[in-house]
Design a protein that fits this description.
Length: 205
């Protein structure tokens, strides 16, 4: 089938893109409003974009409706310039999902989901501390670029020889098609080492 996204019905681009750009990592973003109220919400329009400097990107659509009302996460980041990306792993998946409920701004998802929080993270095994680099308003969406200024990872998930992340033990999850489907990452089925040009020429690989 072919889909003309310029002429298709509202919502079609979302349904198709989230099914095809998958699996996606999930950022459970904690941010604070000006009064110090903690907010948490998951975002899978998310990835790292470069490492020198270390920049991550997050796509946040406005709330549905005619008004251009930003989600609490986007509003908080614009006002405070700070946020934390908590890595979503299998053990916090249910709590992460509660944080996606559209609670009024004065209700903290962090408490409602039953998260215990340290100053900048929400019970996650790993977290990226970010400063807003810039926010671009594009149509009904905002693309937030964050500079990662510090990373926290529980010791048991770090192989200090790299340092590398023991990804097969961390058990991060990925989001699939927007119908509530997720994938595990600890059933990696193959390892494909990169090939240097020298190896390629020698025919060894
Ligand atoms: C796994 C998952 C991923 C999500 N990804 C996004 C996303 O990338 N962009 C977005 O705008 N909303 C996304 N949402 C919806 C938001 O989490 C939801 O609108 C939330 O209520 C926003 O909260 P806030 O107003 O506190 O920022 C996602 C929801 C789930 C469950």
């Amino acid at each position: 089938m072919n889909f003309d996204l310029e002429r298709g019905p509202a919502g079609q681009a979302y349904k198709l893109l989230v099914g095809l750009v998958a699996p996606r990592p999930i950022a459970l973003i904690t941010s604070m409003d000006e009064d110090g109220q903690l907010n948490a919400a998951p975002f899978s329009a998310y990835n790292y974009l470069c490492t020198d400097p270390p920049i991550i990107g997050v796509g946040v659509t406005n709330r549905p409706g005619q008004q251009f009302v930003p989600k609490d996460t986007a509003r908080n980041i614009r006002r405070t310039g700070e946020f934390v990306v908590n890595v979503v792993t299998e053990d916090i998946a249910e709590k992460m999902n509660i944080c996606a409920t559209d609670f009024p701004a004065e209700m903290s998802e962090v408490d409602l989901a039953g998260f215990t929080t340290a100053p900048s993270q929400a019970e996650a095994h790993a977290a990226l501390e970010c400063r807003e680099y810039t926010t671009m308003e594009i149509g009904r969406s905002r693309i937030i670029l964050g500079r990662v200024v510090a990373i926290y990872v529980e010791d048991r998930y770090v192989d200090p020889t790299g340092p590398y992340i023991k990804a097969d033990e961390l058990h991060a999850i990925g989001r699939m098609n927007g119908l509530g489907n997720y994938v595990r990452t600890h059933d990696a089925f193959m390892t494909i080492p990169r090939i240097s040009y020298e190896e390629w020429k020698s025919g060894k690989r």
